[in-house]
Amino acid sequence: AQSVTQPDIHITVSEGASLELRCNYSYGATPYLFWYVQSPGQGLQLLLKYFSGDTLVQGIKGFEAEFKRSQSSFNLRKPSVHWSDAAEYFCAVRNPGGYQKVTFGTGTKLQVIP
Amino acid sequence: EAGVAQSPRYKIIEKRQSVAFWCNPISGHATLYWYQQILGQGPKLLIQFQNNGVVDDSQLPKDRFSAERLKGVDSTLKIQPAKLEDSAVYLCASSFSRANTEAFFGQGTRLTVV
Lengths: 114, 114
Fold this sequence. Notes:
Helices cover 0% and strands 52% of the residues of chain A. Chain A is mostly beta strands and 114 residues long.
């Protein structure tokens, strides 16, 4: 069965600093990969997705993620964090093809300090 | 384009009572998902519909939870009777039925069982 691990439950960074959120997945082949962001009281908003092709994907709000097959990872990065980035971030995986469900990680809560 | 609509936004009920949530997906989206998100955890898929048929309900507690998607458009999720551990945010999402697409989420319904 597919699974997603986000090892960092909570991360605190200073505004303007760089950010990297870790995500590792378990799946026999290359799945579809997603990063979602959830602000308090809100639903999930898609930041970026990887289906195939270029392993470095660009998303909204200045985020990017890199798919590394050898490490089964899909880490999210941002070169300079803004206070408005404070939220919870979820990595998700889906089997390619068919009507397969999307499996989410447990999330990483990001705190941004001045 | 209108997003995924959910109602109500908040609901407080006593244990053993029943409750229903409503979801209207994005127009044209054949796939509809219901997720349960317990505080501090990632969303967990409860049930997935393709048009009005169930594709995956393996994690739905069928002794108390039920869902339907009549006419393949909007959907309702019901809990009867509710337990304290059902307190969570219930998220509805929808997507096109093609494989390489992402799910779009509603704002969710926060259920508190007291």
